[in-house]
């Protein structure tokens, strides 16, 4: 029996993630938690004919406790997304506190769970989660993850424009350095199969695509749907 919990289930990433987990045959029980709208999201997803039993919780009446008790996998997409004009420091000031408080609940109610953090900036929210778990005496580095599948998906897709690769999902491109424009590095030289990228295209691939997406898109974040779709498949 596998129980998964989504903390931040009503948001732009949380809702499609919850849908995919409800449909995932590996999940037997799914708990949704958020500060608003969780009952409605839960009701909608309960109509999906899958094995997973679903329940939804709000902060009142010990909702976080009920969502986390007995949980094997916790995914945290909670927090605000990055908007035009925002730096990652701005994002950190809001999301750090949200992640901290949720991880305190994990430390108390499901200390053995695998914890996957999507909330940005991931490079900073994961260390905060680690410190909270350490303070509670339940930290296990093998059970705490920052989800950066998005960067791999981007690398595979963007390279297709220049490499001639017909199916971007067939390319495997390692991406290291975490989820930050200052540190992230796609290792095109380690791609499998090997890629032939024109030298004058490297700068555009490495530095420009992310900012273009952040500043030009006011619609639903379909990149995140692909990201969360790949996560349960790879578990």
Shape: globular
Number of strands: 8
In which order are the strands of the major sheet placed?
3-2-1-4-5-6
What amount of the residues lies in strands? Answer: 5-15%
Write down the overall mean pLDDT.
86
Fraction of residues in helices? 40-55%
- By CATH, the architecture of the largest domain is named 3-Layer(aba) Sandwich
SS element count, helices: 8
CATH fold naming of the largest domain: Rossmann fold
Q: Which class do the helix and strand fractions yield? A: alpha/beta
CATH class of the largest domain: Alpha Beta
Output the helix-strand order.
EHEHEHEHEHEHEEHH
Biggest β-sheet: count, sense, barrel?
Answer: 6 strands, parallel
Domain Lactate/malate dehydrogenase N-terminal: 3-146
Pfam families: Ldh_1_C, Ldh_1_N
GO biological process, one term: tricarboxylic acid cycle
GO molecular function: L-malate dehydrogenase (NAD+) activity
What does this structure look like?
By secondary structure, this protein is of the alpha/beta class. It folds into 2 domains: 3-146, NAD(P)-binding Rossmann-like Domain (Rossmann fold, 3-Layer(aba) Sandwich); 149-207, no CATH class. The chain contains 8 helices and 8 strands. It has helices spanning 14-23, 38-45, 63-68, 88-109, 122-135, 149-163, 202-216, 222-234, and strands at 3-7, 29-33, 53-57, 73-76, 114-117, 144-146, 175-176, 185-186. The chain has a 6-stranded parallel sheet with strand order 3-2-1-4-5-6, with helices on both faces. A two-stranded antiparallel sheet has the order 7-8. Strand 1 (3-7), helix 1 (14-23) and strand 2 form a beta-alpha-beta unit. Helix 1 (14-23) runs parallel beside helix 8 and helix 4 (88-109) runs parallel beside helix 5. The two termini are 15 Å apart. Mean pLDDT is 86; it is low at 212-220 and 231-235.
């Amino acid at each position: 029996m596998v129980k998964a919990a989504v903390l931040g289930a009503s948001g732009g990433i949380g809702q499609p993630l919850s849908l995919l987990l409800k449909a995932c045959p590996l999940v037997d029980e799914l708990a949704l938690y958020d500060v608003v709208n969780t009952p409605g999201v839960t009701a909608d997803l309960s109509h999906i004919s899958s094995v997973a039993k679903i329940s939804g919780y709000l902060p009142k009446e010990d909702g976080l406790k009920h969502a986390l008790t007995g949980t094997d996998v916790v995914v945290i997409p909670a927090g605000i997304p990055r908007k035009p004009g925002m730096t990652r420091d701005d994002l950190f000031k809001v999301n750090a506190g949200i992640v901290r408080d949720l991880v305190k609940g994990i430390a108390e109610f499901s200390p053995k769970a695998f914890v996957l953090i999507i909330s940005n900036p991931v490079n900073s929210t994961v260390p905060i989660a680690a410190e909270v778990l350490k303070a509670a005496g339940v930290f296990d580095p093998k059970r705490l993850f920052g989800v950066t599948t998005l960067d791999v998906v981007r690398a595979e897709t963007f390279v297709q424009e220049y490499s001639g690769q017909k199916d971007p999902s067939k390319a495997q491109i390692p991406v290291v350095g975490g989820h930050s424009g200052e540190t992230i590095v796609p290792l095109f030289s380690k791609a499998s199969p090997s890629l032939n990228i024109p030298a004058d295209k490297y700068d555009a691939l490495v530095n420009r695509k992310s900012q273009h997406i952040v500043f030009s898109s006011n619609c639903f974040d379909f990149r995140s749907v692909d990201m969360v779709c790949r996560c349960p498949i790879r578990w």
